[in-house]
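User: Reviewer 2 asked us to show a designed sequence for the structure in our supplementary figure. I'm pasting the structure tokens here. Could you produce the per-position amino acids so we can include them in the response letter?
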């Protein structure tokens, strides 16, 4: 496959509160030329699966947390090379979705960095843990996510698109982080979600959404958003893949990204 490397023509600035920490942070996305990198103070880390340090509640690169929404927006806008500079070690929550990131990234002027030839994905990549699974194959950008729960509403929901890039801005990027109502107090006590409020998180109650949903199936749309961001750690364009996720979280997403990167690296 031919990968068209692309970066920004000039820097873009995002400001807000860290999604979990609640600490004010400025994220400046600079033009790049050697992949996707995140830096905060003296730490600089490349966005690749091997550098993921934690997957509990978010995806963390070294000491830099919650990179998945920006990574998803980069995947959705097909930007391959940037340097993300942070004033605090967590990405801003924005509105709980990837839409603010994608809106500015997709509208920004770009700089072409040439073409790189990579091998096509020659085999199906599969990752499974318990009842969760992710399947990846050579494709044309199809994405599907199936949410299933034995104890919590909505029990089963799914979202599917034949073209993740075509539908990203309108159907995937606006989907917000979700939380189950019975978990909120426990999350607060654990210091999680401090950068979110009732407008930036979809709260799921025993029989329905506690606050207004952007989509009837907003939960699986956000899960696909996260999956795209985590898989982009492998550096593979979404337009060349077909992906299906079921009950997966960041841990399995990153494992799938690692297996995808390994499959692409084989001679």
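Assistant: Here is a per-position design you can include in the supplement:
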């Amino acid at each position: 496959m031919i990968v068209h490397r692309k970066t920004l023509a000039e820097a873009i600035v995002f400001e807000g509160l860290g999604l979990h920490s609640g600490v004010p942070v400025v994220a400046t996305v600079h033009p790049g030329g050697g992949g996707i990198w995140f830096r905060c103070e003296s730490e600089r880390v490349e966005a690749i699966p091997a550098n993921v340090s934690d997957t509990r509640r978010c995806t963390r690169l070294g000491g830099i947390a919650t990179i998945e929404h920006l990574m998803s927006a980069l995947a959705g806008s097909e930007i391959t090379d940037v340097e993300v500079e942070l004033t605090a070690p967590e990405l801003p929550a924005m509105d709980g979705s990837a839409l603010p990131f994608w809106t500015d990234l997709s509208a920004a002027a770009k700089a072409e960095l040439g073409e790189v030839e990579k091998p096509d994905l020659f085999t199906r990549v599969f990752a499974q843990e318990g009842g969760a699974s992710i399947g990846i194959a050579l494709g044309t950008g199809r994405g599907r996510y199936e949410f299933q729960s034995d104890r919590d509403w909505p029990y089963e929901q799914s979202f599917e698109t034949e073209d993740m890039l075509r539908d990203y801005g309108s159907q995937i990027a606006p989907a917000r982080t979700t939380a189950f109502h019975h978990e909120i107090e426990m999350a607060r006590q654990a210091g999680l979600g401090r950068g979110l409020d009732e407008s930036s998180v979809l709260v799921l109650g025993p029989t329905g959404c506690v606050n207004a949903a952007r989509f009837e199936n907003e939960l699986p749309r956000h899960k696909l958003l996260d999956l795209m961001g985590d898989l982009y750690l492998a550096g593979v364009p979404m337009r060349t893949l077909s992906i299906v996720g079921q009950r997966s979280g960041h841990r399995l997403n990153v494992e799938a990204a690692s297996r995808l990167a390994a499959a692409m690296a084989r001679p």
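For the response letter, you might also mention the following. Helices lie at 68-76, 99-107, 164-172, 184-189, 218-231, 250-265. The chain has a mean pLDDT of 94.
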